[in-house]
Write a structure and sequence with these properties.
Length: about 325
Amino acid sequence: MIATRTLLSVLAAFATSVAVAGCASELDEPTASTEDALCTTACTSGTLDGDALLTRVDRGSALRSSWAPSTSALPASYALGAQSLREDARQKFMALVDAARGHGVNLACLSGYRSFHTQCALFRSYAERDGCEAANTYSANAGHSEHQLGTVCDLTLAGGGSSFIAAGGTADLWLRAHAHEYGFACSYPNTDRRDNDGYIHEPWHYRYIGVRAAAELKAREAELAGGLRLAVPVFIASLSASEREALELSDEPDDSSAPPSRASDAGASDADGGAPATPDCSTVPFEGRCTGTVLEWCASGAYRRVDCAGRTDGRVACGEDPSPYIGKNCIAP
Ligand SMILES: [Zn+2]
């Protein structure tokens, strides 16, 4: 089993080298001195267990070498080679793939769970080839990889060889609009790696953080300026302990408990200043509320309000959003 996984990781390594070939100039960029100081091929255990969905795994925060999730294999039609995920992520991943296929996007998992030791070997092979700092722009040190959580898949198009999905392609666009409905978010979504915890743009790397947290991430992303997207490690690092706890509480045990996430794909923002008319979310229905063109909803216990009439994308009316798990939203009249 371990031998198989190691072999696959080597295959994945070659797939990665193909996928990032177009980013060679980025690899030549000088790296920050803090990264140089951190860069090492020594595989040092972190201190964290990864049981919590929103476990902070990034450059500064690492999992224990002995920590591993309980994982199950993805059925062959959902993966390229043998790939496994933690059960909750696995169920949602299959639902996401099914939904994407319904829209003609044939996704599959090219690289899922990786153990601490697999990541250690993988990173060393990259560092040997490209140097430690360069390798650390597209691959994480052991313990610092989200893949060890068992909640991540690197995505490919089934039947499309072993390349990761491309930025701006149909799969990327579909995932940007719908992945959050299944609790997934792209961990490294920006072209500038300084906005991605130091990693290059990886439109293929999706982490399951739960439907609740994914909706909250999208809502916060909608408030960012200049088309900036919100990287998962940046989002998680920004959460307070109580926010993290609230978002992890339960993940959509039934539809009625799911917070509406109309800010998600639409990019609704508090264009009107967002002054809360009431801080009491118990008075706002779970699916949100329309009063004329004004949309009100609660996300993770926080009251939000936006006047759709102020939008510039044509979705200037308030009404029922047809997407799953979404109630009221700004929609086209
Ligand atoms: Zn990945």
